Amino acid sequence: MASRLRTSPVHRAFPRTRLPLVGLGIAAALCLGLAPPRPLDFDAQHAADAGQNPADVHFHLSFAGGRTQFHRGEIIQVEYSLASDTTDRYRSGDLWFDLSERSRFETFVCDRPADSPDPLAGHWTIWEALYNVHVTRHGGSRTALSQKPVVETLDLNDYIRFDKPGRYRLYAITRRVQTDFSPNRNPFAGGPPLASGIFEVEILPDDPDWEAQQLQRAVETMILAQKNERERRNAARTIRFLQTPQALAAMVSHYTGEMRDVDAQMLSGMIGFHERAAAVKALEERLPAADFGVSRFFLFSLGVMKLRLVSPELSASDLTDKATIKRWRHALFDVLMPYYAQLIPAAEKKDSRARALTVDTLFHTSALESFDFEKLPISPSQIDVLRFRELAILPDLPPYEQFDRVANFGWARDLPAEQVLPVLRRIYAKPAGDMPGNIQQTRNHVLKDVNRISPEEGQRLLATAIAEPHAELGARDVSNLQLTPSPELDNLLITKLEGRFTEEMKSVSPLIGQYATPAILERVRAVYEVENEAWPCDIEAGLLAYFLRVDAAYGEKIFPAADRFAASRQQITCQRATLLGRISMFYYGPFIEQSAIAQLQESDRARTIDAIEILRRHPSSAGQAALLARFERFREQWKDFDPQKSGTEIKQKWTAGNQAGLEMSLVRALSQSVEYRRHADRLEELARLCVTDECRAEAARMLR
Fold first, then answer.
1. Could you read off the pLDDT of 286-324 as tens digits, one per residue?
2. Environment class of residue 464 by beta-carbon count within 10 Å: exposed (0-12), middle (13-18) or buried (19+)?
3. 50 contact partners, CB below 8 Å, separation of at least 6
4. How far apart are CA 543 and CA 508, in angstroms?
5. DSSP per residue, 521-532
6. Position with higher pLDDT, 47 vs 6
7. What share of the chain is helix, strand, coil (3-state, %, to 5)?
8. Among residues 135, 177, 289, 611, which is most buried (max CB within 10 A)?
9. Handedness of CA 103, 105, 110, 113 (dihedral sign)
């Protein structure tokens, strides 16, 4: 959804990108999601397509391992061999993937099109248009073509489903080879179409014993390899392509809604099943199952499948204007509403994990303006019921969903505190997930939410954290709470600081920097001057933030020596590359801004990038002007550099100085600001300053 649908940054199957499908995005998605017209004369069409290939590019396609005979549903791996007589003129491998993890730049043309359809033809393009979200994932890496062939592999099954035995003649058309590196090129369009030579494959007659054996092994792996996601994903792909009724049943039963890479394969197999009506029926029967958590991707994909089943005239090529998209979106609502009517009461009959995921899907897809700023037609009373259910199931959500709902807690802020606080306490005691870092992040957000609802309880939690040396709640966990300065808080903080235990000092110094009052200034200064600038960075940053806040003259006087000492250390160990960056996390004012602008001009790339981050997090007119001036200077310095064509020496200078990181930091800091974001003329100005395609793509991304 344009602004609310959230997807994971970690799991590649459903990336977190949330971009509205407008302008260039519509054209690109439709172009990349549609197969070319099927030729009436296969050989003539191939001759025409191959005739468009540049004379100095050679595209050969073969089967990995040399086999040409395969069972129906067996994974068929093919190899692209790409070469060029002209060195550095062409680049291959810069790819964009759809939600099924297949490249949008590949198409296969077959002499038996009726028996070899694209199993997912149009699905994700329709999905993206109707749900108003563009979730293409960037992947691959660019490789310059030369006379030595570049070999790239892919699974043919992702693009073609063989429905009958027999011989097939095919050729591939790829747009993965780029020739246009100009600043204003469309980064999502790929290169010109290149046609491979014709190759042949034989699909053997159906072999029920082979199919049953493959399915049994894959299902056993799904059950036994619980801790090995790679093995489970490979097993899921085996099941996905088998296309038997038993395989469909296995896909439906093993889709969990919680293991994203595995679920992406299962869901893609259900979408691409050769009998759409059977797949829709199986998915619908699964919805009310007591052990099945209905994820939004499952529900939304089922909605599109059912819409295409009841409206076979719908084509991805129809969705080219807002009026048509809105009309079909309302038709989708008509399909979805019976599912919501069924699931709202059914969710309460599911077990705890399944109920949690189902309620979460129902609430967050109905209560928010998700569909191009248009809500589903669900009554406010039903949404209120779902809101209270959502609160109750928060402790049972999978890790990512739980973290997202707690981190974006606005939906629950108007609920009664006596109902919200017990739930937050329960999550704090036992957050979902196993990774310490994720648990700590969840607790940080829980504590912020607690503090907004009940500052008294927030203060109590902080007091517990500081007063107990080994408390479960660490003071660093609550360092971003909006606390109320008080004599009691001052006493807790200065007592720990004067205790001179390093770890406790590290915990309380950030809190002193943010919340301690001038009343304890002399006591804090007495502790600081024991070591002066030689304190560990966490302590140094917190105390300097305090001095700059309550005694600016003293803080500005001692900062230069502390900054020099921190820069002389081999490694800054306080979560930022520079002392100034760490201080800015606790206190920000004119002195910090001026120092960041000065640091922006330094030759040390790590310090420059950290200065960019400071100014990005604290936007101002002066900071924006300084960032733009620094970007213009970067462009002037590297305007003749080409990542592919420049000589070895200049490439080494580019890499050694982390110039790519500097460029991306600059373009992100500017393009994400209010002055630039979604302002086409200003983003185009930034794109012209870019040296690399990655930088231009980042500027273009902010338009969507």
1. 999 999 999 988 999 999 999 999 999 998 888 988 899
2. middle
3. 171, 195, 197
4. 10
5. HHHHHHHHHHHG
6. 47
7. 55, 10, 35
8. 611
9. positive
pLDDT in tens, 522-547: 999 999 999 888 898 889 999 999 99
The CA distance from 180 to 80, in Å, is 21
Residue 31 has pLDDT above 50, yes or no: no
Contacts of 619 (CB under 8 A, 6+ apart): 673, 674
Instruction: Give residue for tokens 């690109």.
Output: 28
Contact criterion met (CB below 8 Å) for 399 and 258: no
Buried b (16+ CB within 10 A) or exposed e, 314-347: bebebbeeeeebeebbeebbebbeebbeebbebb
Which pLDDT tens digit goes with each residue over 177-222?
Answer: 988 766 556 667 788 899 999 999 999 999 999 999 999 999 999 8
Percentage of the chain surpassing pLDDT 90? 53
Angle at 398 between CA 397 and CA 400, to 5 degrees: 110
pLDDT tens by residue, 683-694: 999 999 999 988
R_g of the chain, CA atoms, integer Å: 29
The answer to whether the CB of 137 falls within 8 A of the CB of 105 is: no
By CB neighbour count within 10 A (0-12 exposed, 13-18 middle, 19+ buried), where does 301 fall?
buried
- DSSP per-residue letters across 133-152: -B--EEE---EE--SSPEEE
Amino acid at 176: R
Asked if 80 and 172 touch (Cβ cutoff 8 Å), the reply is yes
Contacting residues for 516 by C-beta, under 8 A, at least 6 apart:
485, 489, 490, 493, 494, 524, 546, 550
Q: Structure tokens of 682?
A: 């200003």
Residue whose entry in the numeric block shows the structure tokens 């469309």: 186
* Alpha-carbon span 567 to 570, nearest angstrom: 8
Q: What contacts 380, CB < 8 A, 6 or more positions away?
A: none
Contacts of 669 (CB under 8 A, 6+ apart): 612, 613, 615, 616, 627
Both tokens of 297, joined, read 């991707």
Write down the pLDDT at residue 437.
64
In the chain, what is the straight-line distance between the N-terminal and C-terminal CA atoms, in Å?
A: 12
Q: Are β-strands 57-63 and 69-70 bridged in parallel, bridged antiparallel, or unpaired?
A: unpaired
Length of the chain counted residue by residue: 704
